[in-house]
């Protein structure tokens, strides 16, 4: 494996803390959401994960669609990352709602599934969190 790029972010204070990237382009506070007993008013790890997964997924979608000759330049993905309680532990789950204008839902689902198999974030989570990918 050849490393092409490494992102570095320092986190301090946990869910009610602060993060900063090594290059300074990301720097902000984190707050536990109200739904989890926090004060809200700032981003949280689940939002950050969803925000990172979405563009990566669309990159994979672009690659697989180009191979099939389909234009997905107007495609969108809405990524929902949920924080769940499972007995005495906590686990994540995800839903990716993929919209590809100009093709049928069936064609979109096939491309969405191919992109899910190709996306590095999807690969990283495969078998680790329950994930649903749906063409809408």
Summarize it.
The protein has helices at 45-67, 105-118, 120-125; strands at 9-12, 18-21, 27-29, 76-86, 89-99, 130-135. The protein has 136 residues and is an alpha+beta fold.
Assign an overall shape: globular
**Sheet bearing the most strands, described?**
3 strands, antiparallel
Radius of gyration: 17 Å
Give a count of the beta strands, DSSP E runs of length 2 or more.
6
Order of strands across the biggest sheet?
1-2-3
Q: CA-to-CA gap between the ends?
A: 35 Å
Helicity level: 25-40%
Beta-strand portion reads 25-35%
Order of helices and strands: EEEHEEHHE
Low-confidence segments, ≥5 residues, pLDDT <50? none
Task: Give the helix tally.
Answer: 3
Look at the helices and sheets and give the structural class.
alpha+beta
Summary keywords:
single chain; 136 residues; alpha+beta; 3-stranded antiparallel β-sheet; 3-stranded mixed β-sheet; globular
């Amino acid at each position: 494996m050849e490393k092409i790029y490494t992102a570095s972010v320092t986190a301090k204070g946990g869910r009610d803390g602060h993060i900063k990237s090594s290059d300074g382009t990301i720097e902000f506070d984190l707050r536990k959401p109200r739904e989890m007993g926090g004060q809200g008013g700032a981003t949280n790890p689940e939002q950050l994960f969803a925000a990172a997964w979405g563009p990566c997924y669309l990159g994979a979608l672009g690659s697989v669609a180009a191979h099939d000759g389909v234009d997905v330049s107007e495609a969108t993905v809405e990524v929902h990352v949920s924080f769940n309680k499972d007995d005495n532990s906590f686990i994540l789950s995800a839903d990716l709602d993929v919209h590809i204008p100009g093709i049928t839902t069936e064609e979109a689902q096939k491309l969405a599934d191919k992109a899910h198999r190709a996306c590095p974030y999807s690969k990283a989570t495969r078998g680790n969190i329950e994930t649903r990918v749906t063409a809408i």
